[in-house]
Amino acid sequence: MAKQEVIVPDIGGAEGAEVIELLVAVGDTVEVEQGLIVLESDKASMEIPSSHSGTVLEMRVAEGDELAEGATILVLEVEADSSSAEEEPSEQGGAAEEEAPSETSAAAEPSADADAAEEAPASSSGESVETIVPVPDIGTDDAVDLIEISVAVGDQVAEGDSLVVLESDKASMEVPSPSAGEVLEILVKEGDSVSQGDPLLKMKVSAAAEAKPESQESPEPAAATEPAERAASAAAAKASAPAPAKASASASADSSSAAANTGGSVYAGPAVRKMARELGVDMQRIKATGPRGRILKEDLQSYVKDALTAKQAGVAGAGIPPIPEVDFSAFGEVEVLPRSKLDKLTANNMQRNWLNVPHVTQFDEADITELEAFRNSLKAEAEQRGTKLTPLPFLLKACAIALRDNPKFNASLSADGEDLVYKKYTHIGMAVETPAGLMVPVIRDVDQKTLWQLAEEVLELAGKARDRKLKPAEMQGGCFTISSLGGIGGTGFTPIVSAPEVGILGVSRAQVKPQWDGEQFQPRTMLPVSLSYDHRVINGGDAGRFCSQLVSLLGDIRKLLL
Ligand code: CAO
Fold first, then answer.
1. Boundary residue ending a domain (247, 263, 279)
2. Closest CA to 427 of 473, 391, 485
3. pTM (2 d.p.)
4. Could you report the per-residue pLDDT of 12-55, keeping only the tens digit for each?
5. In angstroms, what is the span from residue 514 Cα to ligand 1's centroid?
6. Which residue intervals make up region (Disordered) (predicted)?
7. Do residues 199 and 159 lie in contact, with contact meaning Cβ atoms separated by under 8 Å?
């Protein structure tokens, strides 16, 4: 057994490529050519394969690190005669010796480029020359698909601007312009299969710009190439080919791996992926408009713009697609009336609560036959008192007791979701329908009030709501809400929790129904109740107990005294 460092091979001159994914961990057994990490520069994403087989002893990199050629990725424990991706006899000598030789780099292989690159005559002024930009070294001899042409004839491009996008089954990469200039002719079309050295397009570039890369990029003697060829070589060298060297010829730029960080198998170039990751955008949500479903930079930009606009309008939800706009007048006469402020506020609150709270609704029926008999017996007294005794005060009283005995229903989640805030008071909101919209005044300390006090307060607050005389304080501090449609009708409904409260009771219209008493059916007045709750806080069992107790209290109002 021996230790073997695995290093970043020649990655086409991409300086400071970022580690975006670790594909192995300490203890893993890896094979030769198995992907170890995914690197991404602003031009390409690439999977770096292992040069040896063995067991990972030590990871030397972490996600987010910036690596250059030669950096150690990890240390393997290898068999003494471990196979490697390279055939150099000197590989066992250590990391430096494993490094793929650079003779296969684009700039060092003038022949392929030279074959492809037409020599172009210099312009009459001598200041600019025509040159052919070929497919650079793309780390494989196989043909790859040309999936996007990013420029048009006549475009002025800057050095480094993307000219075309190539994609193999393992990599997608942009071919940048070797220098500033004008696109004269496009020699390929989308969907073509191209190989290293194939001509892509003809450009007019300044002679000075063309001369620059020669000294910087090409190790070849100047005499070996004419200016146009040198420009082509420079293009290849600069085109951030992901894997020009032998060791990295199989170093696939695995776009799907990169995609995993931003949302699975999406079809996009590395620059777009990088931008999406920086912005924290899940790429699977982006509508692609590029060829073959490719996500373009413009698609990402319009996604972000839409998200921001929707957020400002308060309708973003969780990235939920908007409801399409319809021209209703196309189908008949319409009248458009502005919504009240209250309506719009309620709509926003409802949507916020609906989207934030995982709702469950528990249904039950209370036998309120005795309650109704008692309530009817008090009608005259209610009138004398100048009030009205509906089922609602009984419901308030019963809920106060159920809240006391099931304290989770009287709690709220803390803002960070870490704690539950148990309230030691029992303030219950009551939904009131008004011409202006829905209002929810809050009756305070329900547990401490008599039925008559509650009846008076229901009447008073409902009246104030309808007259729009409620003060803000009278609508704040609720722990729980009752929404009673009993006076209106219906057999059941699912109310929306008013977060940060965690429960709301819906009350529907009582009906006389046959109930089996063990021997025969009896006509009983049954009150349907529906308890919606925040399932982040309340479990089904909690809700079942709350409802059972409520039904039991309403079924025998003597228990309200206990
Ligand atoms: N079953 C049968 N009858 C019922 C009942 C029920 N569950 N609840 C009330 N009633 C009866 C009352 O006893 C009253 O009858 P009488 O006049 O013969 O006594 C009649 O229905 C009307 O009651 P009410 O609605 O005036 O009084 P209330 O105390 O029941 O309710 C209030 C008060 C303010 C809650 C109610 O008027 C209201 O606005 N409800 C609408 C709430 C709402 O819109 N919820 C939906 C919110 S989400 O969109």
1. 263
2. 473
3. 0.52
4. 655 678 888 888 999 999 998 888 987 777 667 677 889 899 99
5. 23
6. 80-134, 195-243
7. no
